Amino acid sequence: MRHALSIAVVTFAVATAAGIHSRPASAAPANGNDQPVMLAQNNSGGPNLFSLFQDIQRLQSEVRDLQGQVDTLEYQLRQNEQGQRDLYENLDKRLSAFENGGAPAGRGTGEGKRSSDSSGGNYTTSQDPEVEAQYSKAFDQLKNGNYDAAIGALKGFLQQNPESSFSDNAWYWLGEANYVKRNYDASLEAFQTVVNRFRASDKVPGSLYKIGVIQDERGETDNAYGTLKRIIDQYPDSSVADMAKKRLEGLDG
Prior knowledge:
Among the domains are: 127-200, Tetratricopeptide repeat domain (Serine Threonine Protein Phosphatase 5, Tetratricopeptide repeat); 202-253, Serine Threonine Protein Phosphatase 5, Tetratricopeptide repeat (Alpha Horseshoe), CATH 1.25.40.10. It has nine helices and two strands. The protein has helices at residues 4-21, 45-101, 129-143, 147-160, 167-180, 184-197, 204-217, 221-234, 241-252; strands spanning 26-27, 37-38. Strands 1-2 form a two-stranded antiparallel sheet. It is elongated. Residues 1-6, 17-43 and 101-126 have low confidence and may be disordered.
């Protein structure tokens, strides 16, 4: 269909030109014995034909512009669909792990006992059951698809427990919930907080990946390329490394 409009325009224009210039008019006979006399074509036909040719070129240019816009929209739609698939695949895997194992990914035995260091951010040295219960309650909102409620609950958890052993997870899921709601600024802030404040967290590769996805969806191709490349270079064994490679292939294509 991409060339249908331009072909139709050219066909119409040529037919119109042929209809105007191929049939000379004839004068009425002066009397019954006179034969029809063919009238000479109007000498202005040349300029009129040139004007028609310019119109055709202009229309063809407009058609090419429209085709370019269609191509761009199709690409953006494919990228949005891919991002949505990536989101739900990732979310489904993590939620399945949570339901089967009883804890979010990355929260193994003794998680709360990890000590603070200069590269990973500060954590409490033990898990408070009330803190864990509050986090689980906020996460349940996300599991149940109550994204607005999840955003509010996770924010409340982080305000009360800014440096708990669940803080990096809470920031990560806050980013995911905002991403689903297409709150890109808030989503970026959450994922960047994970990357900058919790550099030892296993949520860093996933946060970088979502940052790259958002940059790509915003049309920030160079930034997205750099972010996704960082995952492959610094976290080649992470679960999102393959996803980053596929996303990069789409950018290169």
